[in-house]
Design goal:
This protein is α/β, with parallel strands linked by helices. 38% of the residues lie in helices and 23% in strands. Strands 7, 8, 9, 10, 11, 12, 13, 14, 15 and 16 form a 10-stranded mixed beta sheet that branches.
């Protein structure tokens, strides 16, 4: 006997929402989804911002501009939220949960601020809250952290979680093209939005870092807790210098336990040893490393951007939620109540790379080195590139604190011999590195 259909409502019909809706409306794909879920998945409505826009493969009779009415009146068992909004989506998800519907969402901006609140609400109501697509597209790291590694002590999660910035950095490295040129290429390919700031300034990666930290350590971390730096100041000269030193540059999201037992979470362009697997992650791919004493280093690699990979993660969550509905069970809500202290960003310690455009005259190196020493930053190596008006000094330091390095940079910017201070890159080391 075939189980009763699981009724599905979709909020949002953009790139990802339309992919999900088409999958549910396509008879051939619906057969596979039914076999995976154990019951037919019946699309009962799609809420959109604008009516009258052609949506290939989506039954027009299912389209509505009244999202609230769809949530309240369609009798959906699962509500799939793909609007990208925060405030309106929060209210709609709360209504869905309170009405007894499970929720699948890809809304990283919402979850990076309200995951604890929504998890508690879903747990109290006895429904699922799934969000695999919010972190790394088709890469199933959320499910691994929530289920496969549940109960394991984890010490570090780090990775490439933004395909746009990875495409830009790897293309600059391989082709020697400047940032603005490659950014325009990324926009033409659909990897970057017309306003790319969410990606290139690190906002997107910071939201994902907050979610990864919350899942890995059980303490609620929001994107406001995550110091971030973007990639706009990284130059081809920096990438070349990093390569000569044996590193590749990647924008990394890092969440780790410190020696003092606190949690450090941050996003910044980083120098990764060239022999580390993350250094070979190319193009718009995502990759996440998970490390812990009981599991060793685990790496998850795959497509992290675009409609099809993200829709694949959404459909996986939808199938899992439908299975739970049929079985009368739910997945445990993410744990967010562990009391762990967040490390002061200035206390984070690592090696640093710094480049300076300087006047090519006697005494400059000595004056620059004095500034480093005054702030207790020890120089590991130094290279001069170019001469006269094109002279640059490239430094690699020993371990130093963020606070000491920030003070060093501040004083160097005021030094007469320094024409410009370039990007500050962190050298990621230890563990699997």
């Amino acid at each position: 006997m075939t189980a009763e259909p699981v009724r599905v409502a979709i909020l949002g019909c953009g790139t990802v929402g339309s992919e999900v809706a088409r999958a549910l409306c396509d008879p051939a794909r619906a057969v596979g989804l039914e076999a995976a879920a154990g019951a037919p998945l019946q699309l009962v409505g799609v809420a959109v911002a604008r009516a009258g826009v052609p949506r290939e493969g989506v039954d027009p009779s299912l389209v509505t501009t009244d999202a609230t009415a769809l949530v309240d009146g369609a009798g959906a068992d699962v509500v799939v939220e793909l609007t990208g909004d925060v405030d309106a989506a929060l209210g709609l998800i709360a209504r869905a949960i309170d009405g007894g519907a499970s929720v699948v969402t890809a809304n990283k901006a919402l979850l990076a601020t309200h995951l604890g609140e929504l998890s508690a609400r879903a747990s109290a109501r006895g429904v699922d809250l799934f969000f695999e697509a919010a972190v790394a597209g088709a890469v199933p790291v959320v499910r691994v952290l929530r289920t496969s590694l549940a109960g394991q002590r984890l010490d570090r999660v780090l990775g490439i979680v933004n395909g746009t910035t990875n495409f830009i950095l790897t293309t600059m490295t391989k082709e020697g093209r400047d940032y603005e040129d490659v950014l325009a290429d990324a926009q033409a390919r659909g990897y970057a939005e017309s306003d790319p700031s969410a990606d290139v300034d690190g906002h997107d990666a910071a939201q994902k870092a907050a979610l990864l930290a919350t899942l890995a350590f059980g303490c609620e971390v929001t994107d406001a807790d995550v110091p971030r730096e973007g990639i706009a100041r990284v130059t081809v000269a920096d990438l070349d210098a990093a390569g000569r030193l044996g590193y590749a540059v990647r924008l990394l999201a890092i969440a780790e336990r410190t020696a003092a037992g606190a949690i450090s979470v941050r996003v910044h362009p980083s120098m990764v040893p060239i022999d580390h697997p993350l250094a070979s992650v190319d193009g718009a791919s995502n990759a996440v490393f998970v490390e812990g004493p009981g599991v060793g280093p685990l790496m998850f690699l795959g497509a992290g951007a675009g409609g099809p990979p993200t829709a694949s993660a959404v459909l996986g969550d939808l199938v899992a939620s439908a299975r739970n509905r049929i079985a009368g069970t739910v997945d445990p809500a993410p744990e967010v109540g562990v009391a762990l202290e967040l490390q002061d960003p200035g206390d984070a310690v690592c090696e640093f790379y710094l480049s300076l455009a300087v006047a090519d005259r006697p005494g400059v190196l000595a004056s620059v080195a004095t500034v480093f020493g005054r702030h207790s930053v020890s120089i590991r190596s130094m290279e001069q590139i170019g001469m006269l008006d094109d002279a640059r000094l490239v430094f690699l330091t020993h371990d130093a604190s963020e606070a000491d390095m920030a003070a060093t940079v501040d004083e160097l910017e005021r030094l007469d011999a320094v024409k410009a201070v370039g990007v500050l890159l962190r050298v990621v080391a230890g563990g699997a590195m």
